[in-house]
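User:
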Amino acid sequence: MQHTISVLVSNRFGALARIAGLFSGRGFNIESLNVAATSDPEVSNMTLVTIGDDNKIDQISKQLNKLVDVIKVIDLTEENFVDRELVLIKMKAESSSKEEILRVVSLFRAKVIDVNSDTYTIEITGDENKLNAFIELLRPFGIKEMVRSGKIALSRLSK
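Assistant: Predicted structure:
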């Protein structure tokens, strides 16, 4: 089962490397990882997505909590939470398909953020299902490049 884990860490040199090392050293895979400062410049929030059963996730949480830089570990999968990803897609912009691409962009509330003679660069945010559906609709028109941010998430409950 896929788990989304939020980890508050001290914003110090090497914290990310120690956490990534913990995963690789124990044979756990990180499906996606995002790290950014919070409203407190001394604290960063890491959103990790990994796959495992409850025992594996419990072991990950216990190991993370042993690290000096870790302040708090929350398995958001067990809570009510919101999540988003960002995708940038560079599309072929052939005259025969421009209108249809723009229609799909509008339908999904995405944005064209760059245009040149033969490409559109599109930005879209949303949950994983929305982004996957958007990508599949655009694929037949010719995706030239694509990059995905990975998941960021917040609990709906106030802590």
